[in-house]
């Protein structure tokens, strides 16, 4: 994760070295370690744990963005960003790209965020998250809301027309899954360390809020399309409110993207490991162009395509 960019870009190497100093452990080594095959799943040791995953994903995503920015500058390709957006943790990467926060402050906040979420999750071993999938794109948000009310669980991620994630008591989620299966929906219990983005996480969010209030956050140079409100925000107080609320409220990714498209965004570039958001974007609007940067090959392809189009937004 990020290794080939690290080996080819001085700015990327600097980001990982800075992360190592901030965190007090070798994040680069964790990210670049080859996964091993366990009994059922591919394992990455500590990197599978939230307290390590979140700093790793943030650092790698920011490194991908800086590599894109540097390459565009060297090849004289204009990277004209209209707005930024991120899914849950991704909002921190988006804020780095917008200039609202510096890397040290951002990574410190993410480390605390991950720690608070993990700590609270340990107190609720009987709670978790469950993905609901309809391959035909027929998920009805209001209908899922009604089911959540019936089974006393919560919508946590409104990801796309085909996928919604719910959270709460595992026992109640299992009962809810039986009804969903009868409706021909696919359901999957997620391997997470707590009922993230549910009201259960509010105490963890309150701890983070104290850190947010002490952190230096500036006016964003590019509006952030917020997960919770779906508003385009730039004010530091609005940003703090967003980062606080998204820990225990619905991450409304689908409506955020629909809002961005409605406001004129005509191209999306995902920066970071894998292409999770790119795939969700296909389910939200298959016609809008999408690119991504996660390694040297995808970086090269994206910059070449941007250069041939003459614009990037």
Topology:
Blueprint: H1 3-8, H2 10-23, H3 27-32, E1 36-37, E2 42-43, H4 50-74, H5 90-98, H6 103-122, E3 127-133, H7 141-151, E4 154-158, E5 163-169, H8 170-182, E6 186-189, H9 202-214, E7 224-225, E8 232-233, H10 236-245, H11 253-262, E9 268-271, H12 276-284, E10 290-293, H13 296-309
Parallel strand pairs: 9-10
Antiparallel strand pairs: 1-2, 3-5, 3-6, 4-5, 7-8
Helix pairs in contact: 2-4, 2-6, 4-5, 4-6, 6-9, 9-10
Descriptive account of the structure:
This protein has 313 residues and is an alpha+beta fold. It has a domain at 128-189: Alpha-Beta Plaits (2-Layer Sandwich), CATH 3.30.70.250. It has helices at 3-8, 10-23, 27-32, 50-74, 90-98, 103-122, 141-151, 170-182, 202-214, 236-245, 253-262, 276-284, 296-309, and strands at 36-37, 42-43, 127-133, 154-158, 163-169, 186-189, 224-225, 232-233, 268-271, 290-293. Helix 2 (10-23) packs across helix 6 (103-122), helix 4 (50-74) runs antiparallel to helix 6 and helix 9 (202-214) runs antiparallel to helix 10 (236-245).
Task: Give a brief rundown of this model.
Helix 4 packs parallel to helix 5 (90-98) and helix 4 (50-74) runs antiparallel to helix 6 (103-122).
CATH homologous superfamily descriptor of the domain at 128-189: Malonyl-CoA ACP transacylase, ACP-binding
What is the class of the domain at 128-189 in the CATH system?
Answer: Alpha Beta
CATH architecture heading of the domain at 128-189? 2-Layer Sandwich
Return the average pLDDT rounded to an integer.
Answer: 94
- The outline comes out as globular
Tell me the number of helical segments per DSSP (H or I, 4 or more residues long): 13
The helix/strand series, from N terminus to C terminus, equals HHHEEHHHEHEEHEHEEHHEHEH
**Helix/strand class:** alpha+beta
**Sequence of strands across the biggest β-sheet:** 4-5-3-6
Largest sheet: 4 strands, antiparallel
- Measured by DSSP, the beta-strand proportion falls in 5-15%
